[in-house]
C-alpha cells in the first residue's frame, strides 16, 4: 500500500503505512520480538523541528516508563523540546548512532533516524487514524507553524 | 564619605570560572574608594541566623547585590531575610530582559493582601520606580537594592562599569558602614564581610573534603538548601500553594498572609507548588527551568518550545506527579490530582485559550 500524506501548507508530510503511530507524533514499527517497536519522529514532527542539532536521553536503557514521562531533550535549528514517553511500557535501548550525530533524524527519519526501541502492549493509531489526528489539529497549528517557519 | 555597598554572593560549588569572576570583582572593588565590597556565601543557602545574613541586614544604605541568580530571585530571597529596599534599576543587558512591562502585570492585587507590623512606617517617598513592586504596608527602607545576575556577562569590566554608574547616580547614604557595624552586637563577626580579600585567601587555604558544602574558615557551614521564595509583587494570597503542598512548608502570618514558614520542610528538587501558582509568584532559584528559577517575564529564547506537541503533561499534572514522588519517598500514599488542585480545575479558564490549548485538547479527545 502506498504511503499516506498529510499536507502541512505546501509541505507533504509522508505517513508510511507499514507502521503505527502515537498521538505525540512518533511512529512505531514492529520489531522482531513480540510487542517490540522501533520508535521515531514522524515527518510531521521533523518538519516542525527542522535540523536537529542535539539529542539527549535522561533515562537509562531498559527503563519502565509511563505515558508522558519525561525521557529526554531535543534541540533543533528552530525548536527545543522535552521528549516524553508515548505510552506506558519499557524503553529497551536508544539509537546510539544519533547521540554523536542526530542528523539521520532529518535525512532518514523513518529508517536509520529512529530514536529508540520500546516494548509495550498498548494499541496505537493506524496511519489513517494518525492522519485524521493531524487533520483535527491542523487548523490550530497552522498559525503556529506559519508564524515560526516561514 | 558616602559609600555604596557591593555584595558578591558566591556561586555554589567550585566552578573556577565563577570563582575567578568573583575574585576579579573583589580585587577591583577593594581599591575603589567609593564602594564597600563584601563577599558572602550564596544568598539562597544562607540560614536566617548566619552571620552573613546578619551582615546583610546591617547594611544601612544602597546596595548592589551580584549573584548567580535571576535578579527577581535574589530580590525576594533578600526580602524573606528582611533585607528590604526599593528596587534599583540596572542598565545592564540581561539574558531575560522583559522586566519593565512585566512589573505592570495585573498579578498584583492588594487591598487586604499584605500586612505589616503595626509600627510599620510606610515609606513616604512614593517608591522611585513607580512599579509598585514593594508589598503594601511593610516597612520599606528608603534605599535601593540593585540585583545583578553574574551569569549575564563573563567580563568583570561590564559589572565594574555598571557599579560605577550606579555609584555616581545614586543618592548615597551618608552613613559610614564601619561605624554602623560597631553599634551591632557582634561587630567583629560581621566586619569580616568587609574584608573580602582576606575571606578569599582563607577560603583558598581551607581545604574542604565535602564538595557539597562551602565551609568558611570560621567553621560556619553553609549547606545547599532548597525552598520556595515568594515574589510578593505577584502573589495574590490565593492560597493555592498552601492547599497544594502536603509537607507543611507554607503557613500564614498573624494577619493571614501567605508565608514560607518551614523552608527546610521542602523537598529537594520538587518545584510542584511553583507550577500550581496561578500568578507565577513562587520561585525556586535553583531550578533548571528559567520561569521557575525567577527569570523575568518570557525567557529570551527565540526557539519555539514544542514540548506540548510531543506530549508534555500540563503544569498541574506535572506538579501532582512531582508531589506524589515526594509523598512516596516519605512513605505516604500518593494523592494524584485529588488534593489541593480543585480550585483551578473547577474554575473556567480566565485567559483566552491559545491555539496550542485547543490543539492539545483536540489531541486528547482522540481515543487511543
Determine the oligomeric state from the structure.
heterodimer
Query: Could you estimate the helical fraction of the residues of chain B in percent?
Result: 25-40%
CATH architecture of chain A: Beta Barrel
- Distance between the ends of chain B: 73 Å
The CATH topology of chain A comes to OB fold (Dihydrolipoamide Acetyltransferase, E2P)
Number of domains of chain B: 2
- Average residue-wise pLDDT of chain A: 89
Largest contact between protein chains? A-B, 35 and 21 residues
- Strands of chain B, count: 10
Distance between termini of chain A? 33 Å
Largest sheet, spatial ordering of strands of chain A: 3-4-5-11-10-7
- Helix vs. strand class of chain B: alpha/beta
Series of secondary-structure elements of chain B, N-terminal to C-terminal = EHEHEHEHEHHHHEHEEHEHEHHH
Task: State the fourth-level CATH superfamily of chain A.
Answer: RNA polymerase II/Efflux pump adaptor protein, barrel-sandwich hybrid domain
* Count of discrete alpha- or pi-helical segments spanning 4 or more residues of chain A: 4
Please describe the structure with a list of short key phrases separated by commas or semicolons.
heterodimer; A: alpha+beta; OB fold (Dihydrolipoamide Acetyltransferase, E2P); six-stranded antiparallel sheet; three-stranded antiparallel sheet; about 25% helix; B: about 375 residues; alpha/beta; five-stranded parallel sheet; two-stranded antiparallel ribbon; globular
Amino acid at each position: 500500500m502506498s504511503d499516506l500524506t498529510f499536507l502541512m501548507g505546501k509541505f507533504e508530510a509522508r505517513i508510511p503505512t507499514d507502521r503505527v503511530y502515537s498521538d505525540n507524533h512518533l511512529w512505531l514499527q514492529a520489531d522482531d520480538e513480540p510487542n517490540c517497536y522501533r520508535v521515531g519522529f514522524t515527518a510531521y514532527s521533523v518538519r516542525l523541528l527542522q535540523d536537529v542539532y542535539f539529542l539527549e536521553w535522561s533515562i537509562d536503557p531498559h527503563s519502565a516508563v509511563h505515558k508522558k514521562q519525561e525521557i529526554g531533550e531535543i534541540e533543533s535549528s528552530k525548536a527545543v523540546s522535552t521528549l516524553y514517553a508515548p505510552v506506558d511500557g519499557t524503553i529497551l535501548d536508544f539509537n546510539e548512532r544519533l547521540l554523536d550525530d542526530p542528523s539521520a533524524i532529518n535525512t532518514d527519519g523513518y529508517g536509520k533516524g529512529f530514536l529508540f526501541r520500546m516494548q509495550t502492549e498498548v494499541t496505537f493509531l493506524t496511519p489513517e487514524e494518525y492522519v485524521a489526528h493531524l487533520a483535527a489539529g491542523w487548523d490550530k497549528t497552522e498559525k503556529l507553524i506559519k508564524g515560526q517557519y516561514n | 564619605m558616602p559609600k555604596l555597598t557591593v555584595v558578591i554572593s558566591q556561586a555554589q560549588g567550585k566552578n573556577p570560572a565563577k570563582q575567578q569572576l568573583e575574585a576579579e570583582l573583589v580585587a577591583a572593588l577593594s581599591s575603589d574608594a567609593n564602594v564597600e565590597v563584601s563577599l558572602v556565601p550564596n544568598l539562597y543557602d544562607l540560614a536566617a541566623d548566619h552571620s552573613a545574613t546578619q551582615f546583610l541586614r546591617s547594611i544601612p544604605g544602597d546596595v548592589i547585590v551580584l549573584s548567580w541568580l535571576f535578579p527577581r530571585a535574589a530580590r525576594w530571597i533578600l526580602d524573606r531575610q528582611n533585607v528590604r529596599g526599593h528596587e534599583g534599576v540596572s542598565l545592564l543587558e540581561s539574558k531575560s530582559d522583559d522586566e519593565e512591562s512585566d512589573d505592570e502585570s495585573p498579578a498584583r492585587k492588594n487591598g487586604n493582601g499584605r500586612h505589616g507590623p503595626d509600627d510599620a512606617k510606610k515609606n513616604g517617598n512614593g517608591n522611585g520606580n513607580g512599579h509598585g513592586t514593594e508589598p503594601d504596608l511593610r516597612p520599606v527602607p528608603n534605599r535601593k537594592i540593585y540585583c545583578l545576575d553574574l551569569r549575564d556577562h563573563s567580563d568583570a569590566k561590564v559589572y565594574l562599569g555598571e557599579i560605577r554608574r550606579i555609584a555616581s547616580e545614586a543618592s548615597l547614604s551618608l552613613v559610614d558602614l564601619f561605624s554602623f557595624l560597631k553599634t551591632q552586637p557582634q561587630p567583629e563577626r560581621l566586619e569580616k564581610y568587609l574584608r573580602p580579600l582576606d575571606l578569599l585567601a582563607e577560603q583558598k587555604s581551607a581545604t574542604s573534603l565535602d564538595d557539597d558544602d562551602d565551609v568558611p574558615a570560621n567553621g560556619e557551614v553553609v549547606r545547599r538548601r532548597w525552598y520556595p521564595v515568594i515574589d510578593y509583587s505577584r502573589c495574590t494570597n490565593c492560597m493555592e500553594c498552601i492547599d497544594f503542598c502536603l509537607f507543611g512548608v507554607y503557613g500564614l502570618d498573624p494577619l493571614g498572609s501567605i508565608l514560607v514558614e518551614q523552608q527546610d520542610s521542602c523537598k529537594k528538587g520538587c518545584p510542584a507548588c511553583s507550577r500550581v501558582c496561578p500568578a507565577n509568584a513562587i520561585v525556586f532559584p535553583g531550578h533548571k527551568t528559567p520561569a521557575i528559577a525567577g527569570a523575568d517575564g518570557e525567557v529570551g529564547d527565540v526557539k519555539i518550545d514544542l514540548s506540548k506537541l510531543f506530549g508534555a503533561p500540563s503544569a498541574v499534572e506535572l506538579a501532582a506527579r512531582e508531589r506524589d514522588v515526594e509523598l512516596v519517598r516519605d512513605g505516604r500514599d500518593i494523592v494524584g490530582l485529588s488534593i489541593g488542585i480543585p480550585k483551578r480545575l473547577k474554575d473556567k479558564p480566565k485567559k483566552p485559550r491559545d491555539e496550542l490549548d485547543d490543539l492539545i485538547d483536540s489531541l486528547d479527545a482522540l481515543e487511543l
